[in-house]
Structure formats: C-alpha cells, structure tokens
C-alpha cells in the first residue's frame, strides 16, 4: 500500500473470518503472541497497556495507549515508535497513531494497518523509526496471518 514520509499503510487479505482477526488484534494475550510483546493488562479504550518487546535484540519497554475500539471494524492505539535507546527521553516526543481497519470479504478478511505521525518524531531519530516500522508492519501482517491460520 501507500508509504509517505509521515504515514505507513499496509494491507493483507487473510483467509479467515473477521472475528478471528478481531480477537487476535484486540485480545491482549493473543496480540502479544503474534506481535512479540509481553503485555501486562487487557486493551481497554482510554487506558494504557504496558509491555515488553520480546524480540531478541529489540527488547524494550512499550506503552500502548488505547484510543478507540469499534467492535469488529476498527482498533487504534498511540505509542512511541521504536523506543530502543534507553538514554533518550521519549516523554518529550509525540506518539504516532496506529489504526487497524477490518472489512469482511466473504470468507476472508481484509486487514489494513495505518501508522501516522512520524513528522512529530524528533528529527534525529525520525528516519530510523520510520524505516524500522515500515519493515516491521510488513512482518507483523505476516505474523498475524500465520497466528490466525494456525491457531
């Protein structure tokens, strides 16, 4: 899909019913399995869920600020992208917005992810965060597809 300097968009059509994709996105235990993060609590609109990325070499604390949950169609959160450098003060940075859109297509489900707001990231780390997330979303869509099809 589309990629600009501010926004990453990807989509995939998964051969699974919408409710399975929805559960994999919004159930924090399932999300953690395919996303590679150990989460401390459920996803609740308006709350923040803390976690730790478990991918070897990318172990970092993460915060998912749950923005909106529209059952079976839309899920969004904000976060600080790629907060790997523990010496950097991320509290001075605006988070990006991650949005998931689901559309039923017969027996399949179209899942689209959009992450925007990279123009608000500190200039010295913007390009690297964008690059890492651009490739990251390619991988994560494959991960959720594999998780759902093999669950």
From TrEMBL:
Gene3D superfamilies: 3.30.530.20
A Pfam family the protein falls into: AHSA1
Record-annotated Activator of Hsp90 ATPase homologue 1/2-like C-terminal domain positions: 15-147
Family indicated by similarity: Belongs to the AHA1 family.
Name of protein: Activator of Hsp90 ATPase homologue 1/2-like C-terminal domain-containing protein
